[in-house]
């Protein structure tokens, strides 16, 4: 795609002339306007500049030095700014908002709420649009590229009755079940998770901490650090309420018991009726 203008992406273009309302850039086949409010302080004719190319409100191809929250062929968690008879417009960081046609919504979108969308260049209109039907843009695989215990990057994006739906490695849908979420997650922000199961349909079950013995060791380390931070004595024990354990350590009572058992077997702690202490 060298020497070809790429709409919806960053382009490295040459400044060819200055006008009162901005700069014109070499768009290979046409001149592209960079409006005055986006012109850098220092420049010279024939300098190259990095700009994002899109269509303005009058459907003209235009350049900007603003950086959108995502480019085409990327996913983003964006807020709806307005609703029209044809669809909704989302804030993606540019002067012109991003359009989501009603046909690309799987639920009614509301102003002020954020949704996870895929941004793409519509082949029929040559316009940048977005779709909330993200699964149709993912590769179809059986999930065999993942193994239980794998550490992966996940983007949480939707609450469901089961838990939190996530996009894994930008290619697969995964689920963090309610009983596995012990911390606040920011929708749209990548976080490290671990594969706990690969389902028959290729979708993934996820958890925030490592599975198996490695995960138990991680829980044990957290408990040990909490004991040290409490001057060698932690006011928790096997009869402590699950809510109290979660409040103090951010883990389930089941994981607490496994972690304590690991520390006890390693002869690092002493168990008491009302607390745990360093040995």
What does this structure look like?
The chain folds into four domains: 10-64, OB fold (Dihydrolipoamide Acetyltransferase, E2P); 74-136, Nucleic acid-binding proteins (OB fold (Dihydrolipoamide Acetyltransferase, E2P)); 151-207, OB fold (Dihydrolipoamide Acetyltransferase, E2P), CATH 2.40.50; 212-278, Winged helix-like DNA-binding domain superfamily/Winged helix DNA-binding domain (Arc Repressor Mutant, subunit A, Orthogonal Bundle), CATH 1.10.10.10. The strands form four sheets. Strands 3-2-1-4-5 form a five-stranded antiparallel sheet, with no helix packed on it. The protein contains three helices and 18 strands. With 279 residues, it is mainly beta. It is elongated, with a radius of gyration of 26 Å. Helix 1 crosses helix 3 (253-265). The mean pLDDT is 90.
Secondary structure elements and pairings:
Blueprint: E1 10-19, E2 22-26, E3 31-35, E4 48-55, E5 61-64, E6 74-83, E7 87-91, E8 98-101, E9 114-121, E10 128-131, E11 151-159, E12 163-168, E13 172-177, E14 191-198, E15 204-207, H1 212-229, E16 233-234, H2 242-249, H3 253-265, E17 269-271, E18 276-278
Parallel strand pairs: 13-15
Antiparallel strand pairs: 1-2, 1-4, 2-3, 4-5, 6-7, 6-9, 7-8, 9-10, 11-12, 11-14, 12-13, 14-15, 16-18, 17-18
